[in-house]
Amino acid sequence: MVKLTGPLFSEEARGTLGAARPISSSYRRRLTYPTEIIAPPPPPPPPTVYVVNGTINPNATGNFHLEGTYNLKPYYARLDHAYFLAWGQYNLRANWIISDELPLTAHPLWFRMSIAATPPTTTYNPAQGATGTATVAAGP
User: Fold this and answer.
1) Which residues pair with 65 in a beta bridge?
2) Which residue among 16, 82, 85, 106 has its CA within the 20 to 30 Å range from the CA of 41?
3) Structural domain of 129
4) What are 12-46's pLDDT values in tens digits?
5) Residue 118 — φ and ψ, nearest 5°?
6) Is 33 contained in some domain?
């Protein structure tokens, strides 16, 4: 066993063996605490309309309006509610999906892999028998 000696290791420097030493007043003055908690600004509201275009089959083109929340993200529906733009899982990955049914199942669909809070405004790939590339853009 090694015995440490010197002024840093003496019982006087450490205080009573096994007891906690009080925090010195000079050290306390250096401690700073936040005086107010500032919350980050809220996220902007999601767009209310997206436009789906393209030469696609089946025809899922049109304006998609904000309908509510699905899978904790906003989802959109065409005015006739024949197609939906929603966030879900396809091919074991998180995707934004254009489909004719909620929940998003084994029907013709278009998908874009993304975990974004709102649908990406880009092209979507066909799957499950759908053809053509759908393009999603923010609406008017």
Assistant:
1) 49, 77
2) 85
3) 49-138
4) 555 555 555 666 666 555 656 666 778 888 878 87
5) -130, 160
6) no
